[in-house]
Design goal:
By secondary structure, the protein is an alpha/beta fold. The chain is about 35% helix and about 20% strand. The chain has 12 helices and 14 strands. The strands form 3 sheets. Strands 3-2-1-4-7-14 form a 6-stranded mixed sheet, sandwiched between helices. Strands 8-13-12-9-10-11 form a 6-stranded mixed sheet, sandwiched between helices. The chain is globular, with a radius of gyration of 20 Å.
């Protein structure tokens, strides 16, 4: 770490936390390390460990993009029993400025900073430079955000769209969704469109088919779907791509996102050509009288490495003071 480092930035998810250092607000993150959240008791321990991995430096700011709503001092992860106090972290490290935003709000902030080779376009035409931008992505959970145009430039949305209610479109989907509903009392998009959702939906399909549940991980399920070696895995991933299209189309038509739809997260970018050739785009376009409207919207798969860290860096800009929670000392 360079001696002029002024901030540490972090992308805190339900499975991993990625940490890096920056020399100034909005700078490209350096010295990136990925740690398993389950290996640490809290955020302070994670940061202390990170500092032991990089050359010593002074930092006075910390910016965190975290996978949960940010509403008060206590930040609790949605998909893990793990959290932290903003004030406690700030006091422990004697920070002048601690910024906390939702992880997909942070990812949205990175979108204007991405380069052409960071993106893979999947259908549609040219983005409307004045249109809203939609963002979603499946990982441990399902993140949703976007960007709207304002006099001061693009400004990110803060929401929890991954928890919208979804409904079945076929008898088979109804059977699968009913099982989720029986277990949780609510069928949200995240229940299917996430790593944990993939695993549980596979179990449900095996239950409905009367076939053995092999205890496959999400990575093993996607691998078997791609190489066509498991019919339950194949059906599940076809359903996953279809519902990504349905949910993305709903988001696009709700926001009027003629500026494009961006897909991030840890799952879709890794699916490569399987996702490109899937029914995703057809499901996205399929909105009756608004099919032509959606067909013209470009969709971009984010292929950049660690874009949420770049967004966390940008979140320290004074323009985003009211975004998430800003803790100042002195």
């Amino acid at each position: 770490m360079k001696k002029n480092t002024t901030a540490i930035v972090a992308d805190l998810g339900g499975t991993n936390i990625r940490l890096a250092s920056i020399a100034s607000t909005g700078a490209i993150p350096e010295h990136i390390h990925t740690l398993s959240v389950g290996d640490f008791s809290g955020l302070i321990d994670c940061i202390e460990h990170y500092l032991s991995l990089v050359p010593a430096a002074q930092f006075t700011q910390l910016s965190i993009a975290v996978a949960t709503p940010v509403t008060g001092d206590r930040v609790q992860l949605t998909n893990r029993d793990w959290g932290f106090s903003i004030e406690e972290v700030a006091e422990h490290f004697q920070l002048h400025h601690l910024k906390v935003v939702n992880d997909f709000t942070g990812l949205a902030l990175s979108i204007p900073l991405l380069q052409a080779d960071d993106l893979q376009q999947l259908g549609g035409g040219k983005a409307n430079p004045d249109g809203a931008i939609a963002l979603l992505g499946a990982g441990t959970g399902l993140g949703v955000s976007g960007l709207i145009r304002s006099a001061a430039g693009l400004y990110p949305l803060q929401g929890e769209g991954g928890h919208v209610t979804v409904g079945a479109t076929t008898a088979r989907e109804l059977a699968i969704f009913d099982e989720f509903n029986n277990r949780y009392g609510h069928m949200s998009a995240e229940r299917l469109l996430s790593g944990t959702g993939i695993e549980e939906a596979y179990q449900i399909i095996c239950l409905l088919d009367g076939t053995p549940d092999l205890g496959l991980t999400p990575a093993e399920i996607t691998e078997r779907a791609i190489n066509e070696s498991c019919s339950q895995c194949m059906e599940l991933m076809q359903l996953f791509c279809h519902w990504m299209g349905v949910v993305a189309g709903n988001l696009a038509i709700t926001l009027g996102s003629t500026g494009g739809v961006y897909i991030g997260g840890g799952i879709v970018p890794k699916l490569g050509e399987y996702f490109v050739k899937s029914g995703f785009r057809d499901s996205f376009n399929h909105k009756g009288r608004f099919t032509d409207y959606l067909s013209a919207i470009p969709i971009y798969i984010i292929q950049a490495k660690q874009p949420a860290l770049l967004g966390a860096s940008y979140a320290l800009d004074a323009r985003f003071e009211k975004l998430g929670i800003s803790h100042h000392r002195g």
